[in-house]
Specification:
The protein is α/β, with parallel strands linked by helices.
Length: 157
């Protein structure tokens, strides 16, 4: 799975304001996804909220990997968001989240979806990368960091 194919620069936002509200962050992610994937933002938000109701996707270290399967999506896609103020997201380490890498899969996606989740989670466990993502000033810089780091660490799959 190539991060560059998964995440378009236009699906990266560094200035999302969520006022410490989990649903607002997910709504922002849904809006970005809707614009980039030509899908309905309400349906995307509903799918994200349904997944979050099962268990938080906050993986720790200020990172969350919300995800959903979407009708009308042809391939795996991603959205990266950095919020201005960290949000209580019910993470496993009880720390607020400021970095979100949302993954979206076609309804019928199988193991590819799980491999992508594992890959992104492993990537964002790297303290140095998280720090660089927090300091980056542009979507291009975020994209370059993620693609470069992913290429440096080939997946086991």
């Amino acid at each position: 799975m190539n991060i560059g194919e998964l995440l378009d620069r236009s699906a990266i936002s560094l200035r999302v304001s969520a006022a410490d509200d989990k649903k607002k962050v997910l709504a922002g992610i849904a809006e970005i996804a809707a614009r980039n994937f030509q899908l309905d933002a309400g349906e995307i938000l509903d799918a994200l909220l349904e997944r979050e109701a099962a268990d938080s996707t906050g993986v720790g270290y200020g990172v969350a990997v919300p995800h959903a399967r979407l009708a009308g999506l042809e391939r795996m896609r991603g959205v990266f968001v950095r919020v201005e103020q960290p949000v209580d997201f019910g993470s496993v380490d009880d720390q607020p989240v400021d970095l979100f890498f949302a993954l979206f899969a076609p309804k019928n996606a199988g193991a590819e979806h799980l491999r992508a989740l594992a890959r992104v989670s492993r990537l964002l466990r790297q303290a140095g990368l998280r720090e660089q993502l927090r300091k980056a000033r542009t979507a291009d810089a975020i994209h370059a960091l993620l693609v470069q780091e992913a290429a440096a660490r080939p997946s086991a799959a």
